[in-house]
Amino acid sequence: MVDGGAEKPKVRSQIAFIGREVAALEADYARLAEAHSKLQATHSELEAQHTALKDGKRKAGWDALQKQADDYERIVRSKDLDYGA
């Protein structure tokens, strides 16, 4: 446009248009950067909750197995089993 001998008002109009587009892109970038930061924080929080739930579930499973083992041992020691039947 500048090399083609365009008139100054047209060149200025194009420069103003480009300036507005740059400003809009900068605003979009700032908004997206903030949204990304919030998503990262939420992801970290949810990941921590998931780990806690997974660990709790694992512990509950082991506790249930331990209780079954303790119950079995108590039955065996009390000689409540009738081996002759």
| Secondary structure category | mainly alpha
* Number of extended strands: 0
Strand content: under 5%
Low confidence ranges: none
Based on Cα principal axes, name the global outline.
rod-shaped
Number of helices: 1
Task: For the record, give the distance between the C-alpha atoms at the N and C termini, rounded to a whole number.
Answer: 104 Å
- Chain-averaged pLDDT: 87
From the alpha carbons, calculate the radius of gyration and give it in angstroms.
35 Å
What's the helix-strand series?
Answer: H
Plain-language structure description:
This protein has 85 residues and is mainly α. The chain contains one helix and no strands. The longest helix has 71 residues, at 8-78. The mean pLDDT is 87.
In short:
About 0% of the residues are buried. The protein is built from 1 helix and no strands. The model has no long low-confidence stretch (mean pLDDT about 85).
Note the topology.
Layout: H1 8-78
List its traits.
single chain, 85 residues, mainly alpha, 84% helix, 0% strand
